[in-house]
Amino acid sequence: MAPAPDAGRLGAPHDGPDRSPRFRRGQRRCPLALAGLLVTFGTPAVVAPLAFDEPEPTRSADGTLQLSWAEALGDELHDYELQLRHEGESRRVYTGRRPEAHVSGLPDGRYELRVRMREGDGWSPWSEPKVLVVQHHPMSLVWTLLALGALVLTGTAVIVLRSDRGSR
Length: 168
Prior knowledge:
The protein is of the alpha+beta class. It has one helix and ten strands, in the order ββββββββββα. It folds into two domains: 1-48, no CATH class; 49-139, Sandwich (Immunoglobulin-like), CATH 2.60.40.10. Strands 3, 5, 6, 8, 9 and 10 form a six-stranded mixed sheet that branches. Strands 1-2 form a two-stranded antiparallel sheet. Strands 4-7 form a two-stranded antiparallel ribbon.
């Protein structure tokens, strides 16, 4: 089936699923700003940075964080990369196809996380950083709660044993 004469124009009728806002190789399309997602001028798409679902700073008392970000549009699978920055050093903590990640095992400190997406042969720009401040519970509180738990357990055992002896 030959393509319609106006098949290269925006808004032209076409067969098959709608793949606009994605750039298809060999076509020269010029969407100026489709919801701010991309701009193409006969070259591969320039994808806008991703954004975290909850971009505001977060505090953690256990060194863990569950992150999610906006999924890319379309039915194509995309690779995502999550980067963690701490004290001037950066490391990749997640690479995968799901728009979510769980980060754990972080010591006290201030962290910045950012994400980007691979599309075609390149990467999108990095997202705005999400700030995470980790401040674990002080050990004095941990030992106090542990001692209190041991005291409650001992008291309960004593009460149960005394009531058992009295019923015989």
